[in-house]
Amino acid sequence: MMRWSKALLNTLREAPQDAEIISHQLMIRAGLLRKLGGGLYTYMPLGMRALHKLEAIVREEMERAGAQETLFPILQPAELWKQTGRWETMGPGMFRVKDRKDAWYVLAPTAEEAFTALAKSEIASYRQLPCIIYQMQDKFRDEIRPRFGLIRGKEFIMKDAYSFDKSEEAADASYKAMYDAYVRIFKRAGLNAKPVEADTGDIGGNFSHEFMVFAASGEDGILDCEACGYAANQERAERQTVLLPYTTEAGAATEVATPNQHACEDVAAYLKAPVDRVVKSMVMLANGEPVMVLVPGNRELNEIKLRRFLNGAKIEVADDATVEKVAGPVGSIGPVGLSLPIYADKSLEGAADVIVGANKEGFHLDHVSLARDAKILAYEDLTLVTEGDLCPKCGKPLAIRRGTEVGQCFKLGTKYSKAMGATYLDENGVAQVLTMGCYGIGVSRTLQAIVEQSNDANGIIWPAAVAPYQVGLLLLDPDNPEVVAKAKALAAELEARGIDVFMDDRAERPGVKFKDADLIGFPIRVVAGTKGFEKGGFEIRRRTEKDSDIIAPEAAADAIVARLAE
Ligand code: ATP
Ligand code: MG
């Protein structure tokens, strides 16, 4: 049992200025976290206990899924990162440091290279497969905007696991084992996290799920289908293509004057045409080479989809000089008569009476038939999916929700093992490249996401599985020896039954103790006071309840155990 009078614990009435979201405010106010610098936080003793409980759940489920724990150095030689090319491609988000001999190191932002190097040296034969290894350790990222406390830190705790298999099929089984473990981890931690289809981003690979916690402060957009359960990150989301209705040719393409009209909405209004009859033409650079992309005037291009379609090419918006060189004056460009590669969104397939820029300032072309008048290389799904678009699985309208990513699973294939030469000998003694997967959970972010999802006007409501202490025992009369004796006896009985107790033995008014217990969010509050004992015993209340039950001292431990077991 911990006593407040001995604990390093200070609650605050006010949240610091920079705490923008409720979970950040509550973590600070409840004395769980303190700031050391921007994006850098210290776990205080109570915060540490909650963190340890969450980590224990993660470890148990990893082991249950067959993963083995390891611990790698945070400081990693640059050479390792050069083998895969990520020393160059990771950019300024990766912290790099030099030792006294001028050798470069990385403060690990993730650890595919280090784990692949280990697999290369330790895995020799198919008999050792599948192999899943993980670690729980600090990661470093020089985030553009560290904020929201533990949600986006410069240093944070990640559980990262890596699977090594002999085939695609076997890798799928490892992926499923990790995916299922994630579902169990978040459920046990009392967190409602939804798996959504995701893009693979910088990590690479070909298939991925993110586990998302819905929250207004979430930095990701998720397209969610209530009808069939389809859910995908906006970066990745697809939609059922609805072709534009302008499919009948209406004569030859005709130049029309559109003085000072550039944006699709303005051109449409000027020509009294629906916005989607105007085609938005954009010149992009794919690995530095200009390409044109067409989407309906009321839609946005999803650059991540374009990148995926162009085999991972680096995508940038072309500079004005390039646009003028390959097409025409910025704001008046269109696909007719151009020779650069042109890709159009799927919904434009068959569009035969649309409006495009004339590649001439102040003019557009009306009655354009894309198939007849332009050279479109491919019709692909290239638009950003938004609220109300149709679900690609069932055709019902999609809703958009905000979410925070707490974990992600990737099928990596052989991207890293090939680059680093990580092979094993198969049944016939032939060397084969290992097939990989990687799986991350932001453990520190998850801890705060739990608070973001579970609180009320008075403070945190900890799920019992991760609460710093399951029971807050409020000693209202620390000077009454009978009250103290009964409280101590209850605490001892609870601890003997595996329940941790935090006793508020401060010389404070009851009101202060009640407020602090709610703020910290103990799942069960037990009041030990002279008045209560006159009424028959301890006053016991769940954090989520308004009123307490009076329970006789002999029955109190059972009553608490029963409430916690619910
Ligand atoms: P995000 O898109 O939020 O930046 P990410 O996709 O870059 O995250 P991953 O590389 O997938 O992150 O890392 C695995 C997990 O680590 C994430 O699911 C997230 O929970 C956590 N994480 C990533 N960056 C941070 C950070 N700066 N602070 C705290 N947790 C983080
Ligand atoms: Mg991620």
Brief descriptors of the model:
single chain, 566 residues, alpha+beta, 9-stranded mixed beta sheet, 6-stranded mixed beta sheet, 16 helices, 28% helix, globular, binds adenosine-5'-triphosphate, binds magnesium ion
Question: Would you write up a description of this structure?
Answer:
The chain is of the alpha+beta class and 566 residues long. The chain is built from 16 helices and 32 strands. The strands form eight sheets. Strands 4, 8, 9, 10, 11, 12, 13, 22 and 25 form a nine-stranded mixed sheet that branches. The protein has a six-stranded mixed sheet with strand order 1-29-28-30-31-32, with helices on both faces. A five-stranded mixed sheet has the order 17-15-16-18-21. Helix 1 crosses helix 12 (443-453). It is globular and about 100 Å long. The two termini are 23 Å apart. The mean pLDDT is 96. The protein binds adenosine-5'-triphosphate and magnesium ion. Residues 110, 141, 143, 152-153, 156, 158, 405-408, 440, 442, 444-445 line the site of adenosine-5'-triphosphate.
> Roughly what percent helix?
25-40%
Overall shape:
globular
Strand residue content: 25-35%
How many DSSP-defined strands? 32
Structural class by sheet pairing and helices: alpha+beta
Tell me about the biggest sheet?
A: 9 strands, mixed
- List cofactors, ions and other ligands: adenosine-5'-triphosphate, magnesium ion
Distance from N terminus to C terminus (CA atoms, Å) equals 23 Å
- Low-confidence sequence ranges: none
Number of helices: 16
- Let me know the average pLDDT: 96
What is the CA-based Rg, rounded?
A: 30 Å
